[in-house]
Automatic annotation (TrEMBL):
Domains as described in the record: The DHHC domain is required for palmitoyltransferase activity.
UniProt topology in membrane: Multi-pass membrane protein
Subcellular location: Membrane
EC number: 2.3.1.225
Domain Palmitoyltransferase DHHC: 183-298
PANTHER family in the record: PALMITOYLTRANSFERASE ZDHHC6, ZINC FINGER DHHC DOMAIN CONTAINING PROTEIN
Chief site of localization: membrane
The UniProt record lists the keyword Transmembrane helix: yes
Protein's name in the database: Palmitoyltransferase
Biased composition (Basic residues): 445-456
Region Disordered, residue ranges: 102-143, 316-339, 433-466
A Pfam entry, by short name: DHHC
Origin: domain of life: Eukaryota
Amino acid sequence: MSQCQPRPQNSPLENRQAANRSTAIAVPALLIGIVGYVTWIVVVLIAVNYLIKHQNRHGAGIGIIVLYFIFLFPMASSYLRLLMTIPHPGYIEKGSPTAATPVKPAKEAPPQHNIQASCTSTTVQDGTNETTKKSRPTAPQEPPVTLLDTKAILSGELPPPPGTEQFYSKDVFACDQNGLPIWCGTCNNWKPDRSHHGSDVGRCVLKMDHFCPWVGGVVGERNFNFFIQFCSYAGIYALFVMIVMAVFVAEARSRGNALGGNWIAGLTLGAVFTLFAGGMAMTSIGLALKNLTTIDNIGHQRRVMHIAVLVDSTQQRQPRPMSIDQLKPSHGTEDNEEPWQGTITYPLSVLPDASSETTLPPRTSSPPRTFAILRTHPGMNPWNLGAFRNFKSIMGDRWYDWFLPLRHSPCCKHDRGDSMYELGPDVDRLKVDAGLSSSRSRGGSSRRKHRKHRHHREDSEDVDIMGSTLANVNGVTGREQDSFDSV
Ligand SMILES: [Zn+2]
């Protein structure tokens, strides 16, 4: 009976997205209504009717009105600024649906792998992946997920989807266990560092923090600072309302005046929003000090990720040439805790017959760049710059930017030559642990690489010295699925 459904209903994902669209309209309207109601209570009932008209305390009444709007204005302006950014929180462009479609049928007809998450690191289609065993069929209504044939790409049988040059032109980028950038099978595009696929909106978002019903959209890289400002100002505003209401409720009770329901409602709303907005503000500021998003913070202490680090001639450890047959599936084992996982050289070489079969535009020839694939220690945050610099990277370099909801975060500028985001000292330590640099250079190399414009020619010479211009993958040890992407 169940096999004869004429037309399936919406999937849970579609239902959630539809609910989010409704929420995006309803909740901001509700919030504005609540603020209007509180304004009426404080200004009209308390300040005008009670203090000025009934008590004849003009100074107190006018003072409360002035203070009320002083606290209301920054909250309202930051909320408005936040709403203005909701259409563009840092969305990543979607790729072509055919970007990762295999153009060459697999010889052994590998089984189709469905995955639970709509966004994943690349998956080896070799039939041995543990992910396959654990996966469940994807709901038929959910958007199709495009998997990469990692093995074919790394062996040159298939060209990689376009866009890898955005990653290997940097010195460091987040990658999967095989050294490829993280792939979003729903957006059909590579995921820039620190981006996350938001299933609520069906898009990848730079430094996505969360889907916020209070603003009806995603809080991400381009509005996290405004979100912090809004929560902080809302917490202060609500605290002011709570104090005013508590004082005059207590005063009215002591004088034996009858309390209206609106007074109690104002006190309750002030208390509830003080706790809620204040709590959100403190949580968000705490994350900003650690340079983590809410999503990053989930399981952060256990999280292990992979980063590709450009290898140059000054490094102590040299790539070890190995054959592509030694490429391991993604599941890996836990017996190797070493940071060093192997190397990968970009641009990826493509076998002549493979490139002739593809409909993709021909790649431009770039100097080869070899990257070490490093596995981070559990809980390591490569972008942790220290509390104050973390805070400034989000809230602004100048103190008044911390308070004015005008400018986007400094971390939105992606004009660095070395990486998409400024890297912290933990990356230098990881390089030392991996044998890529000596402890003497710890801390210095990162700053040295913070120049905005770099010359790739130097790097090509370095790579030639190693004699690995055609070796795509050397000594890749399969690891667990990148847990960074699984939240
Ligand atoms: Zn995506």
